[in-house]
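Tutorial, part two.
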Amino acid sequence: MQYPPTELVLDANGNVYHLGLSKENVADTILLVGDQDRVDLIASLFDTLEHASQHREFVCKTGTYNGKRITALSTGIGTDNIDITINELDAIHNINSKERKDNAKFKSLNLIRIGTCGILHPQIPLLSYILSSHAYGLDNVAHFYNIDFSSEEIELNTIISNHIGLPNEINTYVSEGDSELFKKLSSERTESGITITSSGFYGPQGRQLRLKNRTQKLNNNLSSFQHESHRITNFEMESSALFSLGKALGHRCATICLGIANRPNKEFASGFDKDMVGLIKYVLDRL
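Running the prediction step on this input gives:
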């Protein structure tokens, strides 16, 4: 199959359209962050720096850490940006841009999201490292693709949805993160569980300002969920698309977040830059 220019969109330099990157710019292990400034925090820990670029919100720096080649890439906020990022990272490594055909040899990437999140359990302290076993998607991105969810993912999605009682028109899904990356990132320092990926920051995460929402009991229902060894630990806005699209394309995906808000306790951590650097270094060392 040859991809037409309306499907595989390239810029004037032959790079993928949104990221503005080529295969030579990007390592096999990629740290994904929402915040553009967080790329500089990661790169400040590199031993060497070989590439730096920015196109729109997508800031990229590639270098080495203890001899391992790593790319730090900002995605911006939301699963819509993850849809762009995952598809274009995959295209960089697995499609010949000149011939517009799949490469003969497939390249699997390590895609690790380092972000911030809201905590859903009062006993989990602020600034904890929250490691995602699964992502429960309140967004719609995965429903636009032919993805073969496992029987466990389908069952878990049904069990969670029945427990929390969302409006009928919200279609959800569950996707599991990569088990090997999960093991690498897991330690006594981490809290782990199911991450809720929201399509927004306010109403979709149970917040109310002037506009009242339809899910006022959402957070209580999420924090009370328990099924076998599964619990729901946190809210964020990217992991469901990362896990579902990344895994369907054959990549290994993980998310670890710094908990900067405890929603039940109504606590928010300000000035957490040093703690974020600590989390980044933790991830780099574990990898």
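Residues 177 and 261 are 23 Å apart (CA to CA). In part three we will examine how such features are distributed along the chain.
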